[in-house]
Every structure is written in C-alpha cells, then in structure tokens.
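Researcher: Structure prediction, please.
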Amino acid sequence: MKVSKIRNFFFMIAALLAGILLVGCAGGGTKVANLKCQGDIEWQVCKVAEVTSFACEIGKVKKKPALIYTVSIKNIDSKPHRYRLNIFLLDQDKAVGHLVPRKGKPPVVKPGATATVKVPFFKTTEKSKKMLVIVKTIGE
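Model: Predicted structure follows.
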C-alpha cells in the first residue's frame, strides 16, 4: 500500500511539471502561411513565436536516407528568445528535438526576426500522416 501511494505521488508531480511546461502554448488553431507538408498536424506553439514555414521532404543527410523537415520560426515578442522545437511522428513512433537557433552569440532570435532550421529523421523513408509540433521558449 505504501509503494502505491509513493508511485501516485510521483505520477502527480510529473503530471504537474508537464502541465507547467506547456503553459503558454496555443492548441491546434495555429495557422502556418507556408505549409508544404501533407497530413494531420497538431500545433502547440507558444505565444511569443509564429511558425511561418513548415515543409517536409524525403532526402539524404550524410549519405543516409532521411525525412527532412524545414521549419521557420518568427519571434513576435519584444524580447529575444531561444526556442525548443519538437516534432513527433505519431504514426511512426519517432520524435526529434532541435534548438532554434542552433548556435550564435548569444543564441537567440531577435524581435521580429525569423530563424530557419532543417530537422532530419534519419532512416525514415516515408512521410508521416499524423504529427505533433511543439514550439516553446527556453532559458526563462
């Protein structure tokens, strides 16, 4: 009985932390002006970011087959931010994360600026039909 209470306590703490991390993210109502990827996409984009372009293609990265996503994120806040981009291929049980921008001094997207990244899924040769895309700020 005591182990069950401890397990429930840790589960509740984990659920609370996950909820806190997603605070400030918009649900599926995100509009992307330049969407070049087919499939059902669920968006969770924080209030200080806008996805301006989202494309996917089959190609090669370092001579390996890959599904490559090209994502552009615009900072719509008055402060510079660094973002964490996560793409989940729900029908293929794969996920990848990426920092936007990847490098820099300091590594931030300035207000009104847009940063573009290419995110590869190695050894993936077919496009996903169901995806979850999460964009959140980091470092705050």
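Model: The domain at 26-138 is CATH 2.60.40.3230 (Immunoglobulin-like).
Researcher: Thanks, that helps.
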